[in-house]
Amino acid sequence: MHSARLPSSDGYRTGLRRSPGADRGALVRFLSENVFPFHVIPRPTAEDANRAIEAGHYDGREHATLWARDPDGTIIGVVRLDDLDDDTPMVDLRLAEAQRGRGLGAKVLAAATDYVFSTMPITNRFEGQTREDNVAMRRTFLRCGWVKEAHYRDGWPIEGQAPLASVAYSVLRRDWESGTSTPVNWDDDPEVAALSR
Ligand SMILES: CC(C)(COP(=O)(O)OP(=O)(O)OC[C@H]1O[C@@H](n2cnc3c(N)ncnc32)[C@H](O)[C@@H]1OP(=O)(O)O)[C@@H](O)C(=O)NCCC(=O)NCCS
């Protein structure tokens, strides 16, 4: 158990937009005016974004979209929550290009984690996956006390290229409450561990 306190969101916050409705234009602009080099669709067009919103990927029973705001209230990114009908929602965090490279991803992820655990009583775990070469996102998860739980080899398709691994991290409600990180017990069964060596 690591006892360091998880980082604070430092005034960075998320605001729920269960229905992009009035914000739809802003969401479409955000998605189509920024490049997301590690996403399956790195350069969504406005048409792609509208299609995804219409298909229900940004709101409804299973999905919600949060604007990430700095302490002045300026929008700096978007957090999408998936699998909200399950007790382990998934996160997709995207900062605007101009906001990257300054550690803000960790503040937004901390704010999103606070938001999920404080407003969603059934949620016990909060999970995210990223491409293996997305070092900034992997370090952001670790900086926020999230723990690596899986490395899905060839699990991330890339158009025109061989697939890469998808790496999964999560944070537990009890760790969020206590400000600790409980490591995965990979060798829980010594006989099974011996067989896999
Ligand atoms: C991924 C993202 C949220 C990270 O947030 P960020 O604030 O830009 O992260 P930073 O660039 O400050 O990097 C975080 C850490 O990774 C390190 N890092 C970043 N790129 C790195 C690289 N190529 N090699 C080594 N370290 C790197 C930084 O030094 C920093 O380290 P620290 O925690 O020790 O200070 C943001 O860059 C983003 O929105 N990217 C596009 C969308 C995306 O890929 N989202 C992930 C979807 S799951």
Task: Describe the secondary structure blueprint for this structure.
Blueprint: E1 13-17, H1 24-33, H2 46-54, E2 64-69, E3 75-82, E4 90-95, H3 104-119, E5 125-131, H4 135-143, E6 147-158, E7 161-172, H5 173-178, H6 190-195
Parallel strand pairs: 4-5
Antiparallel strand pairs: 1-2, 2-3, 3-4, 5-7, 6-7
The structure holds coenzyme A (COA).
Residues 36, 38, 92-95, 100-105, 128, 130, 134-137, 139-140, 143 line the site of coenzyme A.
Short summary of the structure?
With 197 residues, the chain is of the alpha+beta class. 28% of the residues lie in helices and 28% in strands.
Provide a descriptive summary of the structure in words.
The structure is a single chain. The protein has 197 residues and is of the alpha+beta class. The protein is 28% helix and 28% strand. It contains six helices and seven strands, in the order E-H-H-E-E-E-H-E-H-E-E-H-H. The protein has a seven-stranded mixed β-sheet with strand order 1-2-3-4-5-7-6. A hairpin with a 2-residue loop joins strand 6 and strand 7 (161-172). The site of coenzyme A has 21 residues, from strand 4, helix 3, strand 5 and helix 4.
Question: Which features characterize this protein?
Answer:
alpha+beta, 197 residues, 28% helix, binds coenzyme A, 6 helices, seven-stranded mixed sheet, disordered N terminus, Aminopeptidase, globular, 28% strand
